[in-house]
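Hello, quick one for you while I still have it in my head. A protein chain has come my way and I'm curious about its shape. I'm sending you its amino acid sequence along with the backbone structure tokens. I'd be grateful if you could look everything over and explain what you see. Here's the protein in full, and shout if anything looks odd to you:
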Amino acid sequence: MADNLQEQLYQRLREGLLAGRFQPGQRLKIRDLAAEWGTSPMPVRAALQRLVAEGALEGEAQRSLRVPAMTRERFQQLLQARLAVEGLAVEIAAGRLSAAELTTLEDCVARMESALERRDVQGYLNDNSRFHLTLYRACANPVLLRMIEGLWLQVGPFFNRLFTEADLSLRLNDFHDDALKALQAGDGKAARLAMEQDLSYFGQSLLNLLALENGG
């Protein structure tokens, strides 16, 4: 029972990190989370420690943990690694997607477009995470998927910064739409190119923001 509760809490925190529901530098207090979820501190601490081991959180186990702050160097390293593995997963997945998975991707793109029109940041990020991870999981390569999800746990909290410049929001969904059309046509190479363009375009935009924050 305790193991099951710990797993549930771990998955809830993990999904929040993947979808950008937590901010870089945000503190996560064990007692506060336990009170919010109506449980004792012990399973919360265990769930948080699993995320520390995965590099998604940092801090002292007996007090509070936090989402790591993002630096330009760290983000650049994460981006390089993402470019190396996510495009490959897309190309593999293109030939394996089921009709149900394609429908999920289509629904995600439509909801993301609607969220952008409403300026619903979290709604957009939820479906952005669902779109990418549904696609990557379809590659059916557990080794590749573990690498991708580990990277997303570290970069997900920084996705909120996509909305700090209004001009970026107008193009947020273009590459997803391009990738979806390629996937519908069964063109894995075109889908891979669209996703790599997505990572490169917005990754460079975020690197520029970090450079400004750090004085160049």
User: Anything to note?
Assistant: The two ends are 51 Å apart (CA to CA). DSSP finds ten helices and three strands in the chain.
